[in-house]
Specification:
The chain has twelve helices and 13 strands. It has 326 residues and is an alpha/beta fold. It folds into three domains: 3-86, Arc Repressor Mutant, subunit A (Orthogonal Bundle), CATH 1.10.10.10; 91-163 and 268-298, Periplasmic binding protein-like II (D-Maltodextrin-Binding Protein, domain 2), CATH 3.40.190; 164-267 and 303-318, D-Maltodextrin-Binding Protein, domain 2 (3-Layer(aba) Sandwich), CATH 3.40.190. Helix 1 (3-15) crosses helix 3. The longest helix has 29 residues, at 59-87. The relative contact order is 0.13.
């Protein structure tokens, strides 16, 4: 169907007369009348009644008016999307990920992306695993960073795997726990444990490993905030079990990988998007740039975490020293 005929119909309905509509569309009245005749013939409907000098919509015309406006709205949106695909540097990008990912990964990445795409309006949304996939399905976000990735057999989404996140144990340097770069869950279980809320995948993975080892962990507290766990660990109240993304450099703690049967406990992570939706260049580039950045920063090395923690400790000690006398 010729969209010009639909625009002619809508304009006549809004203007009320052929002459006003012809002036608005900048065509002659005979040409406009022919268009209307063609549309009515194609639809097999009479769209207007003549009432004096005005044209009044028939009942069928009133229903068709709503449908035509909706169709033209979709056509205009298609044109806008095509323009975005041609330009690829202007639009809105909505990204959902966990608070830990935002703090440790996204915060150090955004400057690079914004410098490349200054016209893109970027919106960050805090969410976790299943919620992110549901937001993608509803079209509320463009990109999500989720643990595990896309379920097998799900044809709606595509994913880009990135290096996994490891599970760490963090405690005060003087805490009575064996020193070393690796600690087994059997070594951790008897000590007061500071664990994340059961909704976190880190917690689910740790609990599953404890069940496999037939251990009952000694849980002191649970929290949705890793910072709370690290503060308690720094104060000597127990051992915090956290993902390696959590920044430990603000705390006086020593960290070690948590292992089971000699293997580190890890969480797979993926960047996901809805492959059924149009993806302009600024989103495609975001996916590639973020994946490259995550490959650079993950997995976080224990020696780096130790140096950061030691540096933070020295900074705090220095800040407590009195200023030299003058």
């Amino acid at each position: 169907m010729d969209l010009r005929l639909l625009r002619t119909f809508i304009t006549i309905a809004e203007q009320g007369t052929v002459s006003n509509a012809a002036t608005r569309l900048r065509i002659t009245q005979p040409a406009l009348s022919r268009r209307m005749q063609d549309l009515q013939r194609e639809l097999g409907l009479r769209l207007f009644d003549h009432v004096g000098r005005r044209l009044v919509l028939t009942s069928a015309g009133e229903q068709m008016l709503s449908e035509c406006r909706s169709l033209l709205g979709h056509a205009d949106a298609l044109g806008e999307r095509a323009q975005l695909l041609r330009d690829g540097d202007t639009g809105i990008l909505k990204v959902a990920t966990s608070p830990v990912q935002i703090e440790a990964v996204i915060s150090t990445f955004l400057h690079r992306y914004i410098e490349r795409f200054p016209k893109v309006q970027l919106k960050l949304i805090e969410a976790v695993g299943p919620d992110i996939l549901a937001m993608l399905e509803r079209g509320e976000i463009n990109v999500g960073v989720v643990p595990l990735g896309v379920p097998d057999g799900d044809q709606r989404f595509s994913s880009h795997p990135v290096p996994p996140v490891e599970i760490l144990a963090a405690c005060h340097p003087s805490f009575p726990l064996r020193r070393g770069s690796h600690l087994s869950i059997s070594e951790l279980a008897p000590h007061p444990l500071l664990l994340l809320d059961p909704g976190y995948l880190v917690r689910k993975t740790f609990d599953a490993a404890c069940r496999l080892a037939k251990l009952t962990p000694n849980i002191l507290t649970e929290s949705r905030a890793p910072s709370n766990l690290l503060a308690l660990a720094e104060a000597g109240h127990g051992v915090a079990v956290i993902p390696s993304l959590v920044l430990t450099h603000r705390y006086e703690v020593r960290v070690a990988r948590v292992v089971h049967d000699g293997k580190p406990l890890r969480e797979p992570i993926s960047i996901v998007w809805d492959k059924r939706r149009i993806m302009p260049r600024y989103i495609r580039d975001f996916l590639q740039m973020l994946a490259a950045h995550m490959r650079d920063v993950l997995p976080i090395k224990l020696e780096d975490a130790g140096r950061r923690s030691l540096g933070a400790k020295r900074s705090r000690l220095a800040s407590r020293r009195p200023a030299p006398a003058r």
